[in-house]
Amino acid sequence: MRLKTIILLLISTSIIAENSLFEQANKEYRNQNYSIAISLYDSILHNGLESGELYYNLGNCYYKNQDWANAIWHYEKSLIFKKEQKVLKNLNLTKQKIKDKIEPLPEIFYEKWWLNTIELFNIKIWQIFTLILLWSLLSLKIFEFIKNIKIRYVTRIFITLSLLLFLITYSAYNNVYNNEHAIIFTNSTIVNSAPSNNSTILFSLHSGTKVEIIEKIGNWLNVKIENGNTGWIEDSKCRIL
Fold first, then answer.
1. How far is C-alpha 154 from the geometric centre of its chain's CA atoms?
2. CA distance 221 to 199
């Protein structure tokens, strides 16, 4: 009992300290001391505490310092936690400041619909929905067994919805954790046809551009940009999200 009290006290003290640091960082931001605010926000991250709001505030600080690559990286990190319009708005505004203006490939309507669906909520919410429905289905089957009755149509609806939610949850997880992305952090990055400096130069990318990582070989990354073009870059040229 005494040990639990000590642990709870330590946790409470830590939370109060982090909240105090967060408020101090916000104050420095309001006073336009952006570099100091960045240092304070980073201190919170170094303590292992992450949140969409924290990354969003850091993105705003870097935007004010005109560090577009860092601003974009932190806005993208914020979106991983939660899709918020204020973050998307600032991200799109920052993208207008960078050199590369890449037109994305047109999305097929059902792919766009599916992506919009899985982005309605974060992964945890979809997982909760799925678990609730699975437990409801289990409860229904137990009820059928106890009462010795069959509610076929209701059961089929529950099974269908459970499968659909499972697919959405799996897609949401895959979209966040299996599709790795990075932001270019050098002024100009050569994209090669193979993982070698002696290979053919295909095109170049510039600071702030987002790439999807397809494959890794040594210190080389096979990347794809929004218009579908692919090539190899050195991993030191970018920062993985």
1. 36
2. 14
Encoded tokens for 26: 């916000």
Q: Per residue in 126-172, pLDDT tens?
A: 888 888 888 888 888 888 777 777 777 888 888 888 888 888 888 88
Q: Compute, in degrees rounded to 10, the torsion defined by CA atoms 41, 55, 75, 77.
A: 130
Asked if 208 contacts 94 with a C-beta cutoff of 8 angstroms, the reply is yes
Rounded distance between C-alpha atoms, residue 44 and residue 57, angstroms = 12
3-state secondary structure 177-228: HHCCEEEECCCEEEEECCCCCCCCEEEEEECCCEEEEEEEECCEEEEECCCC
pLDDT tens digits along 210-234: 999 999 999 999 999 999 999 999 9
Whose tokens are 């998307």? That residue is 88
Task: Give the pair of three-digit tokens for residue 133.
Answer: 């429905």
